[in-house]
Structure formats: structure tokens, C-alpha cells
Amino acid sequence: MVGVSGSGKSTLGRELATRLAVPYAELDAVFHQPEWTPLPEEDFRRRVSAFASGSGWVIDGNYSAVLPLVWEHADTVVWLDPPRRTVMRRIIWRSLRRVAGRTELWNGNRERWRNLLTWNEQESVISWAWHHHPIYRQRYAAAARDPRYAHLTFHRIATRADASQLLASAC
To answer: N or C: which end of the chain has fewer CB within 10 A?
Structure first.
């Protein structure tokens, strides 16, 4: 049971689930309902709890409302922690591709041009990533040292080589 969290989304969680032959859940897909309406917290917690009660899984995301539920059932946390410059380069290009290609993300939602041009972190994934990168870096470093999480194995993934090594060990 693996929780994939941290700053900067990747396909690592999905690939890890495939290699481990376990179900995969992306928390953004659960939380963001049509028209970007957030799933009520009680429903969100219920759905994540039901998924996390399975015998094996990969849950991708770091929503504070459900992180304790995920970590309670997990045995491993994969902490995505590339440098901020890498996160920003990837997220900007990813967002531009999604907006230009009108790519559907979850439940009919698409990124919008106007979200690329605002610094409001509630509206812009780019702004959110910029502001939260140092917060998550501190949070996961502290959690990895916290005795409350001694039952978890933390894997810090800072480079593509780190990700490749983790995937190779999952076979």
C-alpha cells in the first residue's frame, strides 16, 4: 500500500501501481467533480477510506483532509521532491499543453487559459505549485523523521534516476 505525495505531479504513481499489479487512485480525480466543484469533505474521506481499506493500492495525492487516512493504511510513502525549478518547468509546459489541447482532466474538467495568467493559488496550479513547494518539502522531511510514522518507509524521489530506481525495485 503506497501513498504517492509531494510537490509536482507525475505518472510515477500510475506506473508503480501497474508494476505492483494493484489498484490506483488519483485524489484529484476523486476530489474535483464536474465544473471543478469540490467533493464535500465527508464524501471525500469516505471514498478514500473505502479505497485505502483494500489489501494493496497506490493512492496519488497529498490532500490534508485524507492524508491521515492514507498513511494509516499505507506501508510506503513515495515523496516526489524534485527541485522547484524542475517542478515549475514541468507544470508550466504540462498546463500549456493541456490548455491548448483542451485535454479533459477529471469529470469533464479542463484547465483554462485564464488560470495560467493569475497568481491566485486557488485558481492557478502554477501559482499553487510555486507557493506550496517549500511547504511540502518541509512537511515530508519532518514526517519522515516523525516517530508517529515509523511504520512507513519513505522514498524521496528528487530525480528521474530516483524514479527509475524505485520502479525497477518494484518489479
So the answer is: C
